[in-house]
Amino acid sequence: MRLPGVGELGQCRLRDAKVLILGVGGLGSPVALYLAAAGVGVLGLADPDKVEISNLHRQIIHGFDTLGLPKTISAAESLAEINPGLNIILHPEGFTPENAADLVACYDLVIDGTDNFATRFLANDACVLGQKPLVHGSVLQATGQVAVFLPLQGCYRCLYPVMPDASSVPTCAEAGVWGATCGVVGSWMASEAIAILLGQRRQGRWQLLQLDAGTSKVIHFTADPHCPACGTAPKYTSLLAENYQPTLCNVPMTDTPLEITIEEAALLLRSSTPPVLIDVREPSEYQVCQIAGSKLIPLATVPERLAEIPKDAPVLIHCHHGGRSLRATQFLRSKGYTQVSNVKGGIDAWSLKIDPKVPRY
Ligand SMILES: [Zn+2]
Fold first, then answer.
1. Which residues, other chains included, contact 267 with Cβ-Cβ below 8 Å and sequence gap of 6+?
2. Which of 139, 220, 272, 290 would give a disulfide with 144, using CB separation of 3.0 to 4.6 Å?
3. For residue 290, how far is its CA from the centre of ligand 1 (angstroms)?
4. Which residues pair with 87 in a beta bridge?
5. CA 170 to ligand 1 center in whole angstroms
């Protein structure tokens, strides 16, 4: 209550708030713990999974004593320890096309910490239709994103109109994630949620974090009038289950591999018709070293510089080690770029395996 912008009135707003948390995993754990500790009155937890031992390094709301229990029940036990007055509503059936609209209608704010595209797009569309604010978060390895979407001010589909093929991007279970990365991103999501509940957010924002590089960026965006969810002629006007299947074929079909090795990239670049090579690192990194012929478009600026990337020609994307460039590749594919591939290992692999004259850092 002593904090500027909170006071007794703000604390009462938190007490009266009803927040729905989708996924009580790596992101949902810190989100739920901090919102409970902040005095949010009602927390809804939607997660159909059970606690497994491989979850524990990042899903800090659970413990050994709740292995095998539904995550909703395990989380509720921890939250009650923090705030016995908290009203916790369990949705162990998860967040589905069948219940999404009803659930969203019951809450003031939705927080999406799920790890699959189907639920992510469902959460977006349900919040657009229900005119509820949405806090989105995602993590992979040492990178993360936090986004705030407010009613009528742009949505996830303004940035990613089409749900990518589930196999195009590895999940945390496949690619790994640092537990502390989940902690940073989840805590950031909780902070944004509290700011929204206190009335301190007036526009959407999208934040990118690169924990291994120690960098973060905020991107402000506006609603896209052509957006298929929140635009002037929306395509998604109801939550049909067929639009939220885990694997979809509504991205353009392509034979271009999502990722290629550094050796394959070198062969292509030395061919008579080399692909366009885009470097998505930061300018300071580009100054240290670069692959000849590459064009610098830092990751955070890719959405606003799409016009500089050809859609009808092969494109290779690289960064330092391959993490940021994979995100850029996935983003471009969601925008209909079918001939774009990520270069695994990035310029570091180039130095090690192709050209030792390129300095490493
Ligand atoms: Zn939109």
1. none
2. 139
3. 36
4. 42
5. 25
- Tell how far CA 157 is from the center of its chain: 12
Which domains are assigned to the chain? Answer: 7-244 (3.40.50.720), 259-354 (3.40.250.10)
**Contact predicate 282/304, CB 8 Å:** no
Cα 21 to ligand 1 centre (Å): 21
Regions in the chain scoring below 70 on pLDDT:
165-175, 246-255
Strand order in the sheet with 143-149: 87-91, 42-46, 18-22, 109-112, 134-140, 143-149, 205-210, 215-220
pTM: 0.69
Q: Which residue has the tokens 């195009």?
A: 168
Q: Is 319 a catalytic residue?
A: yes
C-alpha 324/C-alpha 343 separation (Å) is 11
**Which residue pairs from 309-314 have beta carbons closer than 8 angstroms and sit at least 24 positions apart in sequence?**
309/276, 309/278, 309/337, 309/340, 310/276, 311/336, 311/337, 311/339, 312/339, 313/275, 313/276, 313/339, 314/256, 314/268, 314/275, 314/276, 314/339, 314/340, 314/341
pLDDT in tens, 118-154: 999 999 999 999 999 999 999 988 889 999 999 999 9
Q: Residue 252: what pLDDT?
A: 44
Q: What is the CA(124)–ligand 1 centre distance, in A?
A: 9
CB 208 within 8 A of CB 303: no
pLDDT tens by residue, 14-30? 999 999 999 999 999 99
SS3 content of the chain, % helix, strand, coil (to 5): 40, 20, 45
- What are the DSSP E strand ranges found in 53-197? 87-91, 109-112, 134-140, 143-149
Q: Which residues of 36-52 are buried (b: 16+ CB within 10 A; e: fewer)?
A: bebbbbbbbbbbeebbe
Gap between the Cα atoms of 308 and 337, Å rounded: 12
For residue 223, the CA-to-ligand 1 centroid distance in Å is 6
- Please state, in angstroms and rounded to a whole number, the distance separating the CA atoms of residues 191 and 181: 15
